[in-house]
């Protein structure tokens, strides 16, 4: 199995380390030519979604990645990655892939008090640690999407088919359950 990690901006190294810890090979996606080899899943890291959105377009990555996601490539978006996948963002006009039927709220916890840790039940995984960094949350999910975790009354993880999003950063912990969960989707898709 091989996972592509979008590496144009943000916290992509941490995802690469999580994948390495799980013994899964990955490669960095920085330009259109990087998409020439087949791969089984895509990670969209945290960072700044507006910058990533612009770079994806400038680098010619937007259209081919959107097509792959629409065709069923498993994708895992954390934080900014969640915003890239959201069909709707209540407080931002900009959209990127817009392949996932969720309504997100950007910088939803305020800019100054935007970083904090918590714990919540993640469907099928039990209690997991959560770190939020100027995070979005999901105000609601459409009929096709499923809520996977709620913290403080707010939806912080969801999936829709092979698309998985978390408002928090599982890559910042040694706890690799969420990555393993994603890889199971990618494994199932590849087989
Ligand atoms: N606030 C960022 C954004 O709107 C997301 C923060 C993150 O990815 N940690 O894109």
Beta-strand residue fraction: 25-35%
Nearest-integer average pLDDT: 95
H/E element order = EHEEHHEHEEEEEEEEH
Q: If you consult CATH, what is the topology?
A: Rossmann fold
N- to C-terminal separation? 10 Å
Under the CATH scheme, the architecture is: 3-Layer(aba) Sandwich
**The CATH class:** Alpha Beta
- The CATH superfamily is identified as Class I glutamine amidotransferase (GATase) domain
Low-confidence stretches: none
What profile does the largest beta sheet have? 7 strands, mixed
Bound molecules: glutamine
- Helix count, per DSSP? 5
**What is the helical fraction, as a range of percent?**
25-40%
Structural class call reads alpha/beta
Number of strands: 12
Explain what the structure shows:
The structure is a single chain. With 191 residues, this protein is of the alpha/beta class. The chain has a single domain (2-189), classed as Class I glutamine amidotransferase (GATase) domain (Rossmann fold), CATH 3.40.50. It is built from 5 helices and 12 strands. It has helices spanning 12-21, 49-58, 62-70, 80-85, 177-190; strands spanning 2-6, 25-29, 41-44, 75-78, 86-89, 100-105, 115-122, 126-133, 137-141, 146-151, 154-160, 163-166. The strands form 3 sheets. A 7-stranded mixed β-sheet has the order 2-1-3-4-12-11-10. A hairpin with a 2-residue loop joins strand 11 (154-160) and strand 12 (163-166). The protein is globular. It starts with a strand and ends with a helix. Glutamine is lined by residues 46-49, 79-80, 83, 106-107, 133-135.
């Amino acid at each position: 199995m091989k996972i592509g990690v979008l590496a144009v901006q943000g916290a992509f190294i941490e995802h690469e380390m999580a994948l390495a810890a799980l013994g899964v090979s990955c490669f960095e996606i920085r330009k259109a030519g990087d998409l020439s080899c087949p791969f089984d899943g895509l990670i969209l890291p945290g960072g700044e979604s507006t910058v990533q959105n612009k770079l994806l377009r400038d680098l010619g990555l937007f259209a081919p990645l959107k097509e792959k996601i629409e065709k069923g490539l498993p994708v895992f978006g954390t934080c900014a990655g969640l915003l890239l996948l959201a069909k709707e963002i209540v407080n931002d006009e900009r959209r990127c892939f817009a392949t996932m039927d969720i309504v997100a709220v950007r910088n939803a916890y305020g800019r100054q008090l935007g970083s904090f840790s918590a714990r919540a039940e993640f469907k099928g995984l039990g209690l997991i640690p959560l770190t939020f960094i100027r995070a979005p949350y999901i105000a609601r999910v459409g009929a096709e999407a499923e809520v996977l975790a709620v913290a403080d009354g707010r939806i912080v993880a969801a999936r829709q088919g092979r698309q998985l999003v978390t408002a928090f950063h599982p890559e910042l912990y040694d706890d690799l359950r969420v990555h393993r969960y994603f890889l199971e989707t990618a494994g199932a898709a590849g087989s």
